[in-house]
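Hi support team,

I've been running sequence recovery on a batch of backbones for a student project. Most finish fine, but this one hangs at about 90% for roughly twenty minutes before it completes. I'm not sure whether the input is malformed or the queue is just slow. I've pasted the structure tokens below so you can try to reproduce it. Let me know if you need the job ID as well.

Thanks,
M.K.
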């Protein structure tokens, strides 16, 4: 858990871009305070006129009252409108920045956070933080101003009673703050389990066929029920602490109001207090109590927000790749792997290539410009690891991986050279949306003719025969299409990328032999020499068209 000072620094930094908009909220609030106190004054004047204490013109004061009411209505509408606008703009800014930061963070063999946990932070924690920045912060300042203004007004009427009210209610707030640390701890635990719940729901909805056929619905539902019971238990405990804290506050408020009411009663009986003064006084007491109650209610919100700030700071702590600008080679660059050794310090993403074990040991090879090379070998020998080193996702423990060719000198493989690669990973890599939208992800300027050409090269012309053609909707992970169809569309999508190096990681594994041979022959015919192609495969069809085969188990 991060310390309080670190969380506060993070909170201040995240709040700075919003300060200008919060200032508008505060200004609206100050006008609202003026209107509220003016309403107290006009009510007192009207009662005094009606009871004969004052001989001022009644009609004029009625019009003044109507004007004050209109100002209050305008302030209320403006506050709601501006508050909603500020909240959505702030939430979008925070989410966009952190989402981009997570996507650009370094990849060291596995993700630092599970996807469900990350989404929970980007949605729920940003919502909580936005509420604090856009609502709670301005409201606290407005509340303090209202408390000061109402107290000064009240001071002119009953100075001795004001201090009684403040002492009673301050004691109530201090009493409730004793539970600050425990409530924050409970909130942190609840947020962590909430992330586990979202991760469980997300993974099992994405893999519903596995749940139905292998895991069993009852088993998964039972796990979810267990997590929800833990959340329920912690939430009830937090509610108990909140109830005690609110009890302290209620005691102070009720005591303060009773003291004010009795003061007015005895004042009227002795003739020292007019009915107008009593009316104004009771309204002012409410305007003193309400701000203190508001400040007290912000304590749980502040604790909850600090927990969210801490979780968002953990996302910010992810190291980002240092991007200096694309280093794009003309044509098909070569890739030189020189004496490379590599071992994962964290578990590999598929857990197949181990942790700490040396995956590549002094491996060297030159993938010549325009060549077609097959990387073969059994599972766990380092095939996927080698491609991640080429893509600059991983850094060698020793040795170098560099690109060379026309247009630029040799450059080490990193985020700057990644623009030269077009990559088709294992499995289904289509996104939700239409086939056209999937294709345009790599090249938003691609024309229909270019898309159709890429589909034909990748033996995916079946798309043109679908009822909706390029506008056929793919569900999540390509739902609605077969695995082989998704693979061919993914290859077509990769062909629209500008990169001169194409890496296919078991990209034909779901294809039948005839379709695979037709696809590979098409790639060889259309791309040979114009792209440097690297296949990760042990299938005969790929080996047949290769210029060279590198068997990592023999290296």
């Amino acid at each position: 858990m991060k310390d309080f000072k670190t969380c506060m620094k993070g909170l201040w930094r995240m709040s700075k871009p919003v300060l200008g908009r919060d200032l508008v909220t505060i200004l609206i609030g100050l006008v609202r305070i003026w209107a509220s106190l003016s309403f107290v004054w006009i009510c007192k004047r009207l009662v005094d006129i009606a009871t004969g204490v004052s001989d001022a013109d009644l009609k004029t004061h009625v019009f003044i009252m109507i004007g004050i009411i209109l100002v209050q209505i305008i302030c209320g509408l403006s506050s709601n409108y501006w508050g909603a606008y500020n909240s959505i703009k702030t939430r979008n800014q925070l989410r966009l920045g952190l989402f981009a930061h997570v996507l650009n963070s370094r990849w060291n063999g596995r993700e630092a956070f599970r996807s469900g946990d990350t989404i929970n932070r980007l949605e729920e924690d940003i919502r909580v933080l936005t509420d604090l920045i856009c609502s709670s912060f301005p409201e606290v300042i407005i509340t303090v101003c209202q408390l000061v203004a109402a107290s000064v007004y009240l001071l002119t009427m009953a100075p001795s009673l004001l201090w009684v009210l403040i002492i009673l209610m301050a004691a109530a707030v201090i009493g409730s703050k004793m539970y600050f640390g425990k409530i924050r701890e409970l909130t942190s635990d609840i947020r962590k389990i909430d992330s586990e719940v979202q991760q469980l729901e997300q993974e099992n909805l994405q893999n519903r066929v596995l749940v139905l056929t292998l895991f069993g619905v009852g088993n998964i539902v039972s796990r979810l029920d267990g997590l929800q019971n833990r959340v329920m238990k912690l939430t009830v405990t937090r509610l108990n602490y909140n109830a005690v804290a609110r009890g302290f506050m209620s005691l102070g408020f009720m005591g303060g109001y009773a003291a004010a009411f009795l003061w007015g009663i005895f004042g009227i009986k002795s003739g020292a207090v007019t009915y107008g003064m009593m009316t104004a006084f009771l309204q002012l007491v409410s305007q003193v109590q309400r701000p203190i109650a508001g400040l007290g209610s912000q304590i749980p919100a502040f604790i909850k927000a600090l927990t969210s700030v801490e979780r968002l700071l953990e996302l910010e702590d992810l190291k980002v790749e240092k991007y200096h600008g694309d280093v794009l080679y003309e044509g098909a660059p070569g890739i030189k792997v020189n004496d490379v050794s590599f071992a994962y310090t964290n578990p590999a993403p598929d857990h197949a290539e181990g942790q700490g074990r040396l995956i590549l040991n002094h491996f060297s090879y030159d993938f010549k410009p325009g060549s077609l090379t097959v990387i073969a070998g059994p599972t766990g020998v380092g095939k996927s690891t080698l491609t991640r080193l080429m893509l600059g996702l991983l850094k060698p423990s020793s040795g170098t991986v560099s690109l060379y060719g026309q247009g630029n000198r040799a450059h080490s493989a990193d985020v700057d050279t990644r623009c030269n690669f077009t990559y088709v990973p294992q499995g289904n890599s289509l996104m939700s949306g239409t086939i056209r939208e999937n294709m345009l992800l790599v090249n938003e300027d691609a024309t229909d003719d270019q898309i159709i050409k890429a589909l034909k090269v990748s033996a995916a012309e079946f798309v043109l025969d679908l009822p909706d053609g390029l506008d056929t909707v793919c569900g999540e992970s390509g739902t609605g299409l077969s695995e082989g169809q998704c693979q061919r569309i993914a290859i077509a999508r990769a062909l629209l990328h500008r990169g001169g190096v194409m890496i296919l990681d078991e990209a034909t594994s779901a294809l039948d032999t005839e379709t695979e041979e037709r696809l590979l022959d098409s790639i060889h015919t259309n791309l040979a020499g114009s792209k440097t192609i690297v296949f990760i495969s042990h299938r005969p069809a790929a080996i047949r068209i290769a210029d060279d085969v590198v068997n990592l188990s023999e290296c």
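--
Follow-up from support: It reproduced on our side and the slowdown came from queue contention, not your input. The domain at 323-555 is CATH 3.40.50.300 (Rossmann fold). No action needed from you.
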